[in-house]
Design brief:
With 119 residues, this protein is an alpha+beta fold. The chain contains 1 helix and 6 strands, in the order ββαββββ. The strands form 2 sheets. The chain has a 4-stranded antiparallel beta sheet, covered by helices on one side. The protein has a two-stranded antiparallel ribbon with strand order 3-4. 18% of the residues are buried.
Length: 119
Amino acid sequence: MYIITIFYQTGDSFSTSDTSGEISLTWEKLDAAKAALRRIKEHHDWASEEYSTWRHSPHTKKKPEWLKFPKDVEKPEREYYLTLLDDNGKEIRIHAFWRGYFETFYSAEINGDDMRIEA
């Protein structure tokens, strides 16, 4: 079974700490887990630019075609949700717990494989 672990910084107004967490979805197929890891990176890159308060130039990151939002997910919440595909190709919406006001994404990796993405 393949699991994706996210490494990130979290905190509050007074302190920060490095931590990690596992995606709630697991895979039997390595290719499916790798595709999910690529989606996490694409979502991170898009959301980082889309919701950056320090942005001074037009967007350069185009929203990935697979990144669509149900009507119940309002624009300010879109950086916190994405869909990953399970082993059978079914879309599963997950919460991006590594994104938030005090969170900084570092990297993600698949257990038992050398594939890793970084911010």
